[in-house]
Amino acid sequence: MLADETGRRYAVAFVGSDVTERRRREELSHLQASTDPLTGVANRRVVFEVLQEHLAAARGRGCGLLFCDVDRFKQVNDEHGHAAGDQLLVALAGRLGELAGPGDVVARLGGDEFVLLSPGSDQDSLTSLAERLDACMRAPVQTSAGALALRVSVGSALGRPGRTPTT
After folding, report:
1. Which residues of the chain fall below pLDDT 50?
2. β-strand 63-70 against 9-11: which pairing, if any?
């Protein structure tokens, strides 16, 4: 508050600071810490955070997980080069993203391992999701080495409230 010599207030003074750039850097830092740089999907850290939430004993509703591993991935890299291998991984991430429903999380655990986490799933819905995944993997992927088959081994697990993410 600004006042004249009699003490009568006549203005309010504010000091401001533009934090736009700082906020942008913070958002970018968070994005980099939670996203796989090659595929753009969530990373392992995010999977465990989401699992923690959905497996919480008091408030979790459980979840289903599809674990996906690219078959003969080392052979693809050895025969066609790492660029073609990377293109397969990006395609797999994209196809998983197309299958994912609202609230589902697609993440790269590392290497050629991915997970599709589906909150509130039961065995029937998880089986149906795995069947749809199998069907969408049949189309070849166009890479710098030409069209390559994308073969994926899929496993599933159901997590119930009260379980730990590692279990």
Report:
1. none
2. unpaired
Percent of the chain with pLDDT over 70: 96
Residue 128 belongs to what domain range? 40-159
pLDDT for res 155 = 94
Cα 92 to Cα 71, 87, 159, distances in angstroms: 12, 9, 24
Contact 142, 90 (CB under 8 A): no
**Which listed residue (18, 112, 124, 134) is catalytic?**
112
The CA distance from 131 to 148, in Å, is 21
Q: Residue 56 maps to which CATH number?
A: 3.30.70.270
9 — phi, psi (to 5°)?
-75, 135
Query: How many domains are contained in the chain?
Result: 1
pLDDT tens, position by position, 31-50 = 666 799 999 999 999 999 99
CA distance 127 to 21: 46
Does a structural domain hold residue 32?
no
Is residue 6 assigned to a domain?
A: no
- The SS3 assignment for 12 reads coil
Per the domain annotation, does 7 fall within a domain?
Answer: no
What is the tens place of the pLDDT at every residue in 96-123? 999 999 999 999 999 999 999 999 999 9
Is 122 catalytic? The answer is no
Domain assignment present for residue 167? The answer is no
